[in-house]
Amino acid sequence: MAVQRECWTCPGKRQKRPLIPLATRSSKDCLISTYHGRQIVLNRAMARPSAIIQGREAFARRKWREAYAQFAAADRELPLEPADLERFATAAWLVGKEAQATTMWMRAHHQLVDQGDVERAARLGFWLSLSLLLAGEMARSTGWLARSQRLLKDREKVCAEQGYGLIVTGLLAMGKGNAGEADASFNQALALAEQFRDPDLLALGLLSKGQSLIQSNNIADGVARLDEAMVAATAGEVSPVLTGIIYCAVILTCQRIFDLRRSREWTMQLDAWCASQPDLVPYRGQCLVHRSEVLQLKGDWPEALAEVVKAREHLADRSEAVVGRACYQQGELHRLRGEFAQADQMYREAGRNGCEPQPGLSLLLLAEGKRDAAVAAIRGIVDSAGSLQGPRAGSSRPKLLAPYVEILIATGDMDTAHAAADELTRIAMTFDAPFLQAASTQGTGAVLMAEGKTKAALAHLREAWATWQELNMPYESARVRVLIGRTCHGLGDHETARMHFDAAYAVFKQLGAAPDLVELERLMAIQDARPSSTLTDREREVLSLVASGETNREIATALGISEHTVARHLSNIFDKLGVTSRTAASAFAHKHKLV
């Protein structure tokens, strides 16, 4: 069907033009548009009011808020063409209006389909599928994937757009643990990216391939792919929206494999990229929470707390899992600062939002003196934590083991503590990550110290201290220095012990680590006083029996208490006397006539 209408570019002449059902259709000189149900034909220059021109100029200058405002104004007057709708959507996304961006991309997709530009429409469809997948909307993501694949199914020749579909297909397979299927999809996508010289597709392919390799425990090759994707992002070779996604994805992946150095390096690069575009809302989802975690590890706890509070406000209407992660991080900061009531509230809110509040909740219970509750809580989650295989490989169990060792030592379960420390060491060797190596070496040193193997313990603890210092992690460095001080004191090297205690005290005070300050002050006061005067009557009884050569079981029978209680008394005795073994405690008892 055709209609006749007067074209404003050539008044007085009648032209026949096809009736178009959707918003716009371009020709060389004219723009035919359906506006409020009425078809009009405009001169192209007249159809580009100043708002559109200003929006494009602002977009080119990366003034995202200005571009968003201008395109919004222009769109209210006359529906935008697909190219400007894409610019509008990009600006909306970059200023944090993801829902509106999705709407604009959908409009552009439908217009392109109507105009017969199937490839461009499919590309937008695949992008919608990817963005929805990243937002956790699986059903809508697979729906857009299927629609876009259908648009291209009758093509005889391959095209770059098919590569974007392969990326989404591979990510879905990777999420299900189908590593082989995912790897094949990513390889095909990379081949198409190189064939058509598509920088966005190449960067996405490298990112996805790197994540797939890491999931399969091929960490070195996987990290190399991530770095290559980041090189493209930092060089400005990819589109702005994709640049932000690559940054955050690489940083989070580095965090999951405990590559703290690389995570920090790329975080600094992301900060610089964001600083060059003040309008940008750069951190989204887990990336917001990760920024707080990086600040915490650097020792900037006030800024870390401010960042995670801001994250919770930004994430208020997001998925429960991401909100839960933000709550957990806030709980961690409150616990470290000694704000136990607030920490408990945040951990419980994290749990309500689907985030496992461990090991933080167990460490909180330990700090509150609830040792039995702490070990029961963390033992259950460690027993059910996944292995190093599958979609969550490397993310759960290693993070639990170091706190597990600490809690087990506090409750006197040395056999389990030793086994957990050994497992953490094996995992650290698999990942080859300094962060894990320091945590495992410290855990082994703490176990050896508790078993009375003082010299071996000191070697491990010093190694851990050197790594924490190299990683520039002040809190972890100060904590291991407390252990070194205790070990030196047990060896009779009181001056070195005091040096480490004083250094740790200064760091704890600067950070605001109130619980650690209290515990360290107690240790220092005990070592400055006559140790035996701080023992309770029950502890004197236990010490006397230890010095007589009795085992924990024999002591428990003699005093009518459990072996678990005996172990707890021994832990307190070791702390108060500044010793690390039964032998040293027995020597002290004989020297001070406590037997």
Description of the molecule:
It is a single chain. By secondary structure, the chain is mainly alpha-helical. Among the domains are: 117-281, Tetratricopeptide repeat domain (Serine Threonine Protein Phosphatase 5, Tetratricopeptide repeat, Alpha Horseshoe), CATH 1.25.40.10; 283-357, Tetratricopeptide repeat domain (Serine Threonine Protein Phosphatase 5, Tetratricopeptide repeat, Alpha Horseshoe); 532-591, Arc Repressor Mutant, subunit A, CATH 1.10.10. Helix content is 72%, strand content 4%. The chain has helices at residues 50-60, 64-77, 82-94, 98-115, 118-134, 138-152, 160-175, 179-196, 199-215, 219-234, 240-256, 260-275, 286-298, 301-314, 320-336, 340-352, 360-367, 371-384, 397-411, 414-431, 434-450, 454-470, 474-490, 494-511, 514-528, 537-547, 552-559, 563-577, 582-591; strands spanning 2-6, 14-18, 24-26, 30-35, 38-43. The longest helix is centred in the N-terminal third of the chain and has 18 residues, at 98-115.
